[in-house]
Structure formats: C-alpha cells, structure tokens
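The instructor's notes for this session suggest beginning with a concrete chain rather than abstract definitions. Hand out the sequence below and ask the class to guess, before any prediction is shown, which regions might be ordered.
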Amino acid sequence: MDPNEPKAPDEPAPFPAGEHDPFPPRGEELTPDSLTSARTPAPEPDDRNDWIQSADAHDLPTREPRLKTLGRYAFPPEPPLDEEGEAARDRRWTSRTVIFAALFLLVFNSVSIQSWSRQQEPGWITATVQQLADVWTGQISQLGADQPRQGVREAYETARDQRFIGQPDTPPPT
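After discussion, reveal the predicted structure:
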C-alpha cells in the first residue's frame, strides 16, 4: 500500500486527532522552562537546610506514558454494569464458590459421606449411597487425599487428651 495514495474521506484515522490529541507533535514536548514560567520568584535561600521553598510537587508534569495512552485508545474500558449485570456476575461467583467448596469437601472429607449414609434409615437409596461412599473413600485414600483430615483429627485428639499437672486422667470415650 502506497503511503501517498489518497484515502477515502469517510475512512477513520487510526487515533483521534484534534485539541485532545494525547501525543504532541514531535519537538513540542514539555520543557522545564515552559513549566516554570508560572512560578513566583524564589525567596531568599535558607542557609540552615537545602529545602527549596519555591518547589511544588503539583508543578511537575503529570502526563501518562505513551504506551498507556495507546492502550486506552486501542482497548477502551467497558461501560459499567447495570443492576442485572451485577446480579448475574454475583450469581456466577456464588455458584462457582459453592461448586468449588463441594468438590473440595468431596475429595478431602469423603469419610463424612460414609458416616452420614450409615446414620440414615436402611433402604435401597441409603444402601446404594453407602456402597458408593465406601468405594469413593477407598479410591481417595489410595491417592492420599484423606491424610490431611486424619492429621487434623489426630492433632485434635492429642490436644483434647492433654491434662494439667495433677489433673486426673479422663476415662476413654465410649
């Protein structure tokens, strides 16, 4: 494509141009002299320290980097969500959190499924759940995923069995 080739008038420019152009023309960058023209005359220097009384942090140029400006034009921010969009985002977050917690408990606390199924009334459904829980717990224990639960249980029992000096031992739980 020839750069001297005339362009169609309705073809948009790659970046907006005009009075709000983020990129000044070459050679017209901000210079320290143009920034200090509005300052007041400097007071007499103080011999006790090197503090510059006329220095003001608000006088420094505050232009953002060119790459950041380019990114703002190339990838403009999305408009804020309305109430429906926020509600949908919250529902997605909640459902992901519940699913993650359920999967975490299914892997690391599979013994609870066995305990629950043994406490239920006997029947076809509870027997099926109990058999599935037994198989699942066996598979998980082969992977070693039940070890954190066993470690926490052993630490709890050790802390529970601790006694102060002179305190009688408790009878074993029945």
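Then share the key points. The mean pLDDT is 79. The radius of gyration is 36 Å.
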